[in-house]
Write a structure and sequence with these properties.
Strand order of the largest sheet: 16-17-15-14-18-19-20
Distance between the termini: 38 Å
Mean pLDDT: 96
Helix content: 25-40%
Number of strands: 20
Shape: globular
Strand content: 15-25%
Number of helices: 18
Length: 468
């Protein structure tokens, strides 16, 4: 390891983005948040759309501040949430705004999609659970609803690869992100040609599917030319799992808790049994050539939407006070099912949770504390079911659950989860995606021996152990 080197992680979530500077010094990584910004999808011309121009302005501003503050910065990498993509023309310009995965166009075209590709066959070909948010569904809907724009499309870049393209001028298709699309074979070693053909998606829209943890090239953005653009993990969960200490003698089970809850296990090969298909398992790729079979569960998005509704109504929406209120109230003993579609859609979430509580004999007007506690208890119960299912599929019971992301800061959620799953929960690092990105960048740039990763993680990451 060198004495001091800094890598810059651009970590884009579906509600906020960050630029993190991670400096390797004396065997541990010190992370500094240089820039953070909020963003959200909104309706544009009848479609739920991301503001990529705003995101790109903020990314550039954050990186400019970072290189000024950290003159030893050597590299930059971008990670984002899964499934979303950008349509480009022959000149490499966007032909349409970037549609968000929650846009209802995929619901409108679902029946037509399934007439071209049955759910069972899609899972056989890809190892990805059928879902309207998948990139395959999005591209099919794009072809159905905007055929004129689709005809002008030359390339379809997944979201992190699009920002990497803006930084470097190079178009790549990163395996960890492409694996979320339902357009790759199980384990994401190649594209699933039958899916493209059945859905009418032009194969010319994509290039070679490639592994990550590589150098893309020099940054071409003015003022940032000193940086080397690296693919440290295009998908945020692929970055997050790279920040977990691993014991190669046992299975590593993880939960990335954010707007989505991603509950999975680290393996070398996908899980493709009929039981896995029936359970809705999805096999996504890691950036280091392995796979991460997992369940995508609607997560803290439910609370975020509750907060939004309370805020718009002029009520207290502070998450710290809401969780404190949830801790103080007695449990209603009732659960909602986070997998129900109503809890994944934007809208009046407090009303939906309240209706689900009342339908089970609970109060018609529960307090915010009871709403929050019910949501957290329901998530913990869902994690317990998912962990049991994963253990049955792998044949290896979990010894502990590594919980990363924003949910690791929610002590009540961690306590409830530990009690529900029946094994210790190791909460942290909270900023696992950025730490994983920094570690991978340092490895790619030759600044960190991969064999030293566990030691560096142990010295860098703050964790809390919650017993059942």
């Amino acid at each position: 390891m060198t004495e001091q080197t800094t890598a810059l992680a651009v970590d884009l979530g579906s509600s906020s983005g960050r630029v993190i500077a991670g400096t390797l010094r004396d065997g541990h990584v010190v992370e500094v948040e240089v820039h953070r910004f909020q963003h959200h999808a909104s309706m544009v011309d009848g479609y739920f759309t991301w503001d990529l121009d705003l995101m790109w302005r903020e990314v550039r501003a954050g990186l400019s501040a970072a290189v000024e503050r950290f003159p030893d910065a050597v590299s930059v990498s971008v990670d984002t949430w899964g499934v979303d993509w950008v349509a480009l023309d022959e000149a490499g310009d966007r032909v349409t705004p970037c549609r968000a995965y929650r846009d209802e166009r995929t619901v409108r075209t679902l029946e037509a999609f399934q007439s071209h590709m049955a759910d069972d066959r899609l899972w056989e070909l890809t190892g990805i659970a059928p879902a309207t948010i998948n990139s395959a569904n999005q591209m099919f809907a794009f072809l159905q609803e905007q055929p004129d724009v689709a005809r002008r499309t030359a390339r379809a870049l997944f979201l992190p690869d699009y920002f990497t393209y803006l930084l470097s001028g190079e178009q790549r298709w990163s395996r960890s992100h492409a694996s979320t699309s339902a357009l790759c074979n199980p384990g994401a070693t190649d594209w699933a040609g039958e899916v493209f053909d059945a859905l009418g998606i032009p194969r010319s829209w994509v290039g070679e599917l490639t592994h990550e943890h590589d150098v893309v090239g020099p940054c071409i953005v003015e003022g940032l030319e000193r940086l080397t653009v690296v693919r440290a993990g295009a998908h945020d969960t692929a970055c997050a799992v790279h920040a977990l200490e691993r014991d190669e003698s046992r299975q590593t089970y993880f939960l990335s808790s954010g707007s989505w809850s991603v509950l999975g296990v680290l393996r070398d090969e996908p899980l493709l049994s009929p039981e896995a298909r029936e359970l809705g398992l999805t096999n996504e790729a890691r950036a280091d050539r392995g796979v991460r079979p997992l369940f995508n569960i609607t997560g803290l998005w439910i609370l975020q939407e509750c907060q939004r509704q309370w805020r718009e109504a002029g009520q207290d929406s502070d998450i710290v006070r809401l969780v404190a209120a949830a801790r103080d109230v007695e449990s209603l003993g009732l659960l909602i099912n986070p997998d129900e579609p109503q809890f994944a859609a934007p809208g009046e979430m407090v009303d939906r949770v309240t209706a689900a509580i009342a339908a089970q004999g609970g109060p018609a007007t529960p307090t915010p504390g009871h709403v929050v506690r019910t949501v957290l208890e329901s998530l913990a119960a869902r994690y317990a079911r998912g962990l049991d299912d994963l253990a049955a599929l792998t044949g290896s019971p979990a010894g502990q659950l590594n919980l990363t992301g924003g949910g690791s800061r929610n002590a009540l959620l961690c306590e409830l989860t530990a009690s529900a799953v029946g094994v210790p929960v190791i909460a942290g690092p909270a900023e696992a995606s950025s730490l994983g990105s920094v570690l991978a960048q340092l490895e790619v740039m030759g600044q960190l021996d991969p064999a030293m990763r566990n030691d560096v993680i142990s010295a860098s990451a703050s964790t809390i152990r919650y017993e059942p």
